[in-house]
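so the lab meeting is tmrw and i was supposed to have these ready like two days ago... anyway. pasting both below. for each one the top line is the aa sequence and the line under it is the structure tokens. i havent really looked at them closely yet so no promises
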Amino acid sequence: DAYTKADDAVRGKTDQLFANPRSENPQLSLDAYVSSQLKSNIEKGGVALEKLLVSWAADFTGISSTSDLSLATTFAKGNLDAVKVYLEDVSLAVNVLLPNSNLTQTTIDRWKTDVGTARTNVNTATANLTTAQTNVKTEEADFHAAQGDLNSATDELALKKAPARPADIALYEAQIAQAQASAENSIVQLAKKQINSPIDGVITDVPAKVGSILAANETAVSLISKDTLEIESYIPELHIPFIRVGDMATVALDAYGNETPFMAHVISIDPAETVRDGVSTYRVRMQFLAFDERGKPGMTANVRIITERKSNVLTVPQGIVIHKDGKKFLLVKEGDLFREREVETGGVSFTGQVEITSGLKDGDVVVLKQTE
């Protein structure tokens, strides 16, 4: 929440005051209205805060259940203080603006509102952070107190266990069990304030906010897995009989072109059809054989599924095969005449070439197109 409000305050609310924000040399568009010193402070502050936000975002994605939350909270409060100073300078600048031919009162009022909202949000984030820090310290203190009780009970048992009566031993053991239960309860309470990811990945979005109440199945944090990506394609029913789970495929991502192929294999074929543009298709899911950081979720690609490999076969365009009475024929030149010759066919390639398994030999001349 602290990072989100800081990011919105700097990039969402004040970038509009610059001609070229988020660069190494941002230019404040209000130089005709503010002093050179204030202008310089704001421009330098914008550069510094842009670098701060980039570093903050990188540190934020690396936070885990084993991270030092106290250190992270202190770091966040320092960042918010830097944003506050920057917003104070920006507020001084916009509050002295007067309308003219190049600047309307409506624009001035909007800028003042945006800056005021940004300052309020940052102050709220600071207060929320302070409250969270206090709660964490309280839980940690309870845990350390319980741990101290456990250590004291353990030491006392060590001193008295040898000469003690069974009843005394039972009493001390009960005290130890009670201290252990108290320590475990403190750990459970602390764990309730943390969210642990079930997979390794990268955080892409955190829609949940401090103080908000989430319904069942509502997204709190979005992650992208670091596992190998999958790709899906909708195959027309005409080609589905030739595809099997395990078939290899070559994938050409549009971002890299045909010169950079990626290998994948078919992992599932939907049993039910999906109608797309009036055509019955079946969804085929494929998985890349290896993880490659060049592949990103949402990319588009051309896929070639290899269903069978054959060499030294005779093929003709599928469209010139004549179908009669359940048989297949080709127009073949015999001397000066062209006659229909019965043939048997095999598989069909992705280019539309059909295999001729009998009835035709290498060197025969066939008619590709008949004239009317």
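ok protien two:
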Amino acid sequence: MTKKKPSRLSKKKKKPSHKHKVGQVPGSIIYTGNKVEKGLIIELFDYTADTIDHRHISTVEEAFNLKKTESNSWLNINGLNHVHSIESIGKHYDLHPLVLEDIVNINQRPKLDDYEDYLFVTLRMMYYENSDILVSEQVSLILGSNYLISFQEAEGDVFDEVRQRLVNSKGRVRFMHADYLLYALIDSIVDHYFMVIETLGDKIEDLENQLFEGLNQQTIVHEIQSLKREILRVRRSVFPVRELINKIEKYENHLITENSKIYYRDVYDHIIQVSEHIEIYREMISGLMEMHMNAMSNRMNEVMKVLTVMASIFIPLTFIAGIYGMNFENIPELKFQYGYYVLWGFMVVIVIFMVLYFKRKKWL
């Protein structure tokens, strides 16, 4: 699986600016991402139960005749910065201008829009790179009667297994309609959600071990906060998908067949499991922060207890030293021959008594 190199989550990422969209006419096709130098990569799958044509094409116009064929087709487009090509696809497939605007706006909330002749689905594809860097990219899907068009920001996705099943004629994807292909792509995205939450679980477990072992106390708060932001980022991407899949499952239209709805129901069950895990991890990371603060408070209390015990021991000694340090001439004990040694002995007895008392009270 080819993957793109993103920036680390712990570093502040510069978000795409939307200032250039302010005041624009609704339906304006303006790319809001920052991958403006990526090339246009178009992948085409045209298939039936018995045959398949898999190739890369250089222009979107080469796929325009697929709409009128009896076969099913999947057109995968990488490169949202090529707005002219996306606009050409929109004109040929009669896509609404607001759909094209949402495709190139990479900060869309996962949703499903019904346009009678086609469905517009957008959701976020997520996976970890090197078990540390979270990749999150918007994927837009257009489902027609016999075609599916997917839009991605750049090359690299989680659909390799779907490609293999198409090329090698594995499973049902070659024998069913385009709505099953939509299910297969969504299912692949949701399956990688499980991998994401598994990695999150490992990170939380590592933080717990560091917290109990007292390691990296100076950076533990930063790591907890970074992981908390990461969990919230995943949560914002996953939770709306429940509503999206539920709408598809209950959708009454010729584009979603009854045979495919049972598979969407299975994906819905999976996304519910993912959502429950995210909520559990969210509570766990909050508990880790509270545990860390409690541990810091307990350590501070231990330090204060030691200082208090030391101060309590020296208070009577300071009192005695203060009395005999006054500049009065008539202090009878000053003329006593062994007064100095008696005073030292008395002080030592006080110290021993107080230490034994504190130990008996289990303050030491």
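from a quick look at the 2nd one: DSSP finds seven helices and seven strands in the chain. The chain has two domains: 21-294, 324-360. will dig more after coffe
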